[in-house]
């Protein structure tokens, strides 16, 4: 996977451009394949330019840093759409869309720089939203904290704020890489940076330095006003601008300049806001060099002599912008402009990169990224992995009950997303009518009529052969095939689809697992649906089979054999059974990490494991496969976890069958059906691959 860092401004401000430019510049000098990604594409640019409508920092990174990726691939969801989804409480849908585009970028990059959301008008807490996004994307956060130029606070206060922000982010399961200060008052820069470094020395929070406030970056330029106003530049070229009045303005501006010089503020470059009927104003300002510009609004025709004078002066005169708004609206919009860096802000980009290079310990950031952190298999990543496996080897999955709107909706979604090739069982006219009634497009699905199929005779012959010990007649077999589930079973058994089977090979034990999608990880629970009181040998087989199922779905198997005792802390017949099962499983599969007997808390919680388990254990505190000693324990535990944590339980998935068959509860949702179809397809592909390997091995022997 690509190395990643998630920059988020914990002050909920939008002045992080120097950090982003500096980091991207550093990464581009280390590797050629660097990407920039905004989960929420914020601050779309206005005005008439080729960047209009693009998120501001996406356009900036493309233009200033030469990134070649299509703009739409560099952000997950546009700002307004993100607001809409969050307002409707559809965070999961938002994350699904972000995740898919993010994973697409990760495939092609060595390093990805992400920027957290700073969307104006967004409901809720920005830091909470960014923490949840970072946790789902499994990336570490670099906190950017802006300081107040007039009252930055003491080093101790700044460090306390940073640690509070870290706790808030970690409360939402985000990993925090470090801290970088921004807009540090220049006069106090050295004291603040050294003081904060000392305050955080023993905190475990990496401190990467502080970028000072810079007047070039912190002052708006004509191109920024033009972007905000939707203005057309009619004379001159952009320079720095401010604001001023009209009547008698020259004397007033001179007084302001003198006052600021007396206060040590030598940087004063005003913007003049005037109407077209006062065209003498910009002309009077022409002789003075370095004066930045004028803004006019519509309403009065060009005065020919003034137009001629401005045209003769050429491009080096002060810039004049024309805006389509009235005086009040123009002034209102100008007042809301925050200084920033646009794709065309060449001087500001150069200044930002220089500031970053002088004041940021980028090696500290890179070292934090390089520290090994065990990847988290979040529910979003787990589901994405399953679907990627499905799309790599599409399987044909049969769905009966095509009259049910949930089945039809799931079939349409599965087919549209390329998860599987779907065959619906039912009379084509009835299926089409049901789809039309529920407004579902099943045009990508095949429909097989189980009552008039050309395969009925072959299926009946297969069924007669399979049940010849029971003297089943062909007429009776044909009668059984009128049952839609039986037809689907034989369809799979004969290889016309991928799924169920009539009997098990070599009398192997049939068991089940649930994939428990917890907020920050995915665990495998087995057996919670089939075996009531397994023997030690059966429990060992459940453990090894569950481990193989976990691995097939991208979950690294670390198996915990659960009990009320942890490595001898308790005694009793049930503990003895789990102890024996653990020994049998280890003997059968020495390649697997298996621990037991062990209690659930010691299996999944590193803190508890450190207390209860002495010595080294690959499983304790890190278990991914939890094997319960009996059905009573397993079934109640999975339901308790599901109900009390809001976890998604995918399953039960059956294990030990020659072909996969999985059941759905009567209360299943469309999402349940989609997930089960995807899991069934993965199981089918895995069984085919195993069969091919066995055939190849036999041929080689």
Automatic annotation (TrEMBL):
InterPro entries: P-loop_NTPase, P_AcTrfase_dom1, P_AcTrfase_dom2, Phos_Acetyltrans/Butyryltrans, PTA_PTB, Ser_kin/Pase_Hpr-like_N_sf. This is Phosphate acetyl/butaryl transferase domain-containing protein. Pfam families: AAA_26 (PF13500), PTA_PTB (PF01515). Residues 384-681 form the Phosphate acetyl/butaryl transferase domain. SUPFAM superfamilies: Isocitrate/Isopropylmalate dehydrogenase-like, P-loop containing nucleoside triphosphate hydrolases. Keywords: Acyltransferase, Transferase. GO terms for molecular function: acyltransferase activity.
